[in-house]
Amino acid sequence: MTSAAAALYVPEIAIDVVEPGRRARKGCMAFDLGRDVEFSTAGLESYAFARWEPVIYDAMVVAAAIEYGDRILRRPPQGWARHIALRIPVHDPGRWRSRSVAGRLQDAAEFLTGDYWTLDFTERRSAAPAPEQSPLSLPVKTRAVLPYSDGMDSRAVAGLLGRELGNRLVRVRVGAKSWDQPRNGASRVPFATVPYSVPCNMPNRESSSRSRGFKFALISGIAAYLANAEEIVIPESGQGAIGPALLNVGHAYPDYRNHPLFGRRMAAFINALLGTRIRFVYPRIWSTKGATLRDFAALDSGSDWQGTRSCWRSNRWSSVNGKLRQCGVCAACMLRRVSVHAAGLSESADTYIAVDLGADTLQDGIVQGFTRRTTAFDEYAIAGVLHLDHLADMAEPDAAPLLRRHAVLLAQAMDLPQSEAEAQLTRLFQRHAEEWKSYLNALGERSFVKRWVRARQ
């Protein structure tokens, strides 16, 4: 295959979602609802604080099918997009096929993943099971739903909003600790968890996982619908919400998973499907992660941030002598370290694998006993440092045209005047640049991180 042909190559796959005991059509891969997706009874019951309708189950199946298609088909070696066709059984195919629902669903999925999606809906042969638990009544009217993970931003924003909203805030667990339900004194606060998993254990599966944003947004939308809430709070601070969309890496498609442009599309789809008026809100989008952490740390419960995890690296690559650590050098870890410094806080010495970023070399900064340093580890480190440095470049005058263009998109997505969006965006990256420079200076002149930054100047 020539380089030109490789650049135009778009991998394709057709997947039939089938009920247990059914088969896929000839030439289609089967996604078996009895084998390839695991629904948790307890997970479903975490949503039983209100009415239960078949469309809720169908929406979860759609999210699971999109996740499966995204993970099962590798992206091309040159280029990005794939064509993924899904045929999904639902209780009410007319609802899903309607132009208002199908068009908005396709728009949201394609915008998020950068792929071409074809979605067709057929009628289920049998009704799906409902949660066994009787509906639970919420103690007060729900105001908002917040996707809640092990990350610093979600923990901080849940704390900040929880002080104001109390039990009017429903958290949807999207991290690893599915049953870690927060408490308010002796009572559990309203909480739900993703009620299914898609194992997808193929060795060569796609790792970019852009569809995770779709899953978490839809699951949060379902929780908002069931709890009669009109707001879904995206807790990400500015660098994490806007940075990945503004500065994509290599040939990768921009990452919009926490961006208002994607939230706007998901809200349009959810509202068309469920007849709601749900909107996504971004209370910390004009704040740096450091500012968010500083505000949270000032609360009585503010020390809770130290139990959060930011690292992109999987657990099996991030342990030392049997103790789980964060790598300390990927883009997420680097932003965490800059933010902790900006907030005037500190972390324990055993938080990271790369303990000392002020060392002469990366190897010198890695804790003794870590034996899994690979080329990929080094590449994550270089990319992490340069990503934060490139974000700081957005504060330079040369970046003003790029910020202005992005401000136009943000203004449309957030119903803001363009001038306000541009001013907020400019201030955000100025603050990031200040925090980044302060952190670099604190590392000292010997730091390998400072040398890497100088090398690109």
Task: Draw up the topology in text.
Layout: H1 3-8, E1 12-18, E2 29-32, E3 38-39, H2 41-45, H3 54-72, E4 83-90, H4 93-97, H5 99-113, E5 116-123, E6 144-148, H6 152-165, E7 169-173, E8 183-184, E9 187-188, E10 191-193, E11 196-197, H7 212-226, E12 231-233, H8 238-246, H9 260-274, E13 279-281, H10 289-297, E14 319-320, E15 323-324, H11 331-342, H12 362-365, H13 375-393, H14 400-414, H15 418-443, H16 448-455
Parallel strand pairs: 1-2, 1-4, 4-5, 6-7, 6-12, 7-10, 12-13
Antiparallel strand pairs: 3-11, 8-9, 14-15
Helix pairs in contact: 3-7, 5-9, 6-10, 7-9, 9-14, 10-11, 11-13, 11-15, 13-15, 14-15
What does it look like?
The chain has three domains: 121 residues, no CATH class; 128 residues, 3-Layer(aba) Sandwich (Rossmann fold), CATH 3.40.50; 143 residues, no CATH class. The chain is 43% helix and 13% strand. It has 16 helices and 15 strands. It has a five-stranded parallel beta sheet, with helices on both faces. It has a four-stranded parallel beta sheet with strand order 2-1-4-5. Helix 3 runs antiparallel to helix 7. The radius of gyration is 22 Å and the shape is globular. The N terminus is likely disordered.
